[in-house]
Design brief:
alpha/beta, Rossmann fold, 6-stranded parallel β-sheet, 19% strand, binds flavin mononucleotide
Length: 185
């Protein structure tokens, strides 16, 4: 069975990103994959204070392996100041180079209070992941005006967005197998 890591892309306590991540977990599981939610709230920030690049960091290693050992990653990304949260870049900067995202299927969900649903944040993160040789999944989902659109119990309050999300989930699960076939060909 394939494993998906749903990465909640912020360390903000009570974040919508984590609520969306928890909401999509059972939707992935119903497609026959194992899904785990990993929140950047749990990134061991204290271990990297002072800039510990290239050092042995057992807690960072344990944290990041929950993400990069999965067959695919779904990033749930809020928009902060026209970009993705700094903690997400820090996480990427502490991944092993160059292999961590190499040929890794990655899908993106943006969420923001604003009208663009974190389009900028997602596109910027797609560039970073493409630089690291990930297979970025082209169907993205943007949750605009997320505080009205999404409720953690009710889910997505808009049929079109809800269908787009379901389509991304089903498509991304197929994409995992397609990438695997391509690599073994
Ligand atoms: C530091 C910070 C910067 C933000 N910048 C933006 C922004 O550039 N565009 C936007 O639409 N919303 C912005 N917001 C609002 C967030 O998109 C909104 O609060 C969203 O729900 C945050 O996601 P989170 O709950 O997962 O942290 C910002 C919020 C924070 C905390």
């Amino acid at each position: 069975m394939k494993t998906i890591c749903i990465l909640s892309g912020t360390d903000r306590p009570g974040s919508v990103a984590l609520k969306v991540s928890n909401y999509i977990k059972p939707l992935y599981e119903s497609q026959g994959v194992k899904a785990r939610v990993v929140s950047l709230e749990d990134f061991p920030l204290d271990e990297v204070i002072g800039g510990k690049y290239g050092k042995e960091l057992p807690r960072v290693e344990a944290f990041r392996s929950q993400v990069i050992d999965a067959d695919g990653i779904v990033m749930v990304i809020p928009e902060y100041n026209g970009s993705f949260p700094g903690i997400l870049k820090l996480f990427v900067d502490y991944l092993p180079f160059p292999g961590a995202f190499n040929k890794k299927p990655i899908a993106f969900i943006g969420e923001a209070a604003g009208a663009f649903g974190a389009l900028r944040a997602v596109e910027q993160m797609q560039m970073v992941c493409a630089y690291r040789n990930a297979h970025t999944y082209p169907e993205r989902v943007f949750l605009q005006r997320v505080n009205k659109l999404f409720d953690e119990d009710e889910g997505i309050r808009d049929d079109t967005i809800s269908k787009l999300l379901q389509s991304q989930i089903e498509g991304f699960v197929q994409f995992l197998s397609q990438v695997e076939e391509m690599q073994s060909a």
